[in-house]
Amino acid sequence: MSNLNQLKIPRCVKFNVHQPIVEVHGFCDASQRAFGACMYLRTKLGLNDYHSKLLKVSCRAAQNRFVTVIRVIGRA
Predict the structure, then answer these.
(1) Which of 10, 19, 20, 65 is most buried (CB neighbours < 10 A)?
(2) How confident is the model at residue 27, as a pLDDT?
(3) Exposure string (b/e) for 42-60, b if CB count within 10 Å is 16 or more?
(4) Would the pLDDT of 51 be above 60?
């Protein structure tokens, strides 16, 4: 437990400046009980060489109430 104060988690996202091809990929899925989403940063390093880094993850349990969305078309 004393070494826990020395734990470091890198938050910096760097990519090769000589290969400026960078893509952001997002994925999500949901059900009536929960949803989850994640985002990755993908950098092209060479001909068939890529590096991916996880940027953000989110997940939640659904609330017990129903939400209704109504779209009004042609309202005066």
Answers:
(1) 19
(2) 93
(3) ebbeeeeeeeeeeeeeeee
(4) yes
DSSP assignment of 2-64: GGGGG----------TT---EEEEEEEEE-SSEEEEEEEEEEE-SSS-EEEEEEEEEEEEPPS
The helix (run of H) or strand (run of E) holding residue 69 is none
Residues 15 and 60: their CA atoms lie apart, in Å, by: 30
Average pLDDT over residues 48-61: 87
Burial zone of 21 (CB within 10 Å; 0-12 exposed, 13-18 middle, 19+ buried):
exposed
Tokens of 50: 């890529």
Q: What residues does each domain of the chain span?
A: 15-76
- Which contiguous run of DSSP H or E holds residue 70? none
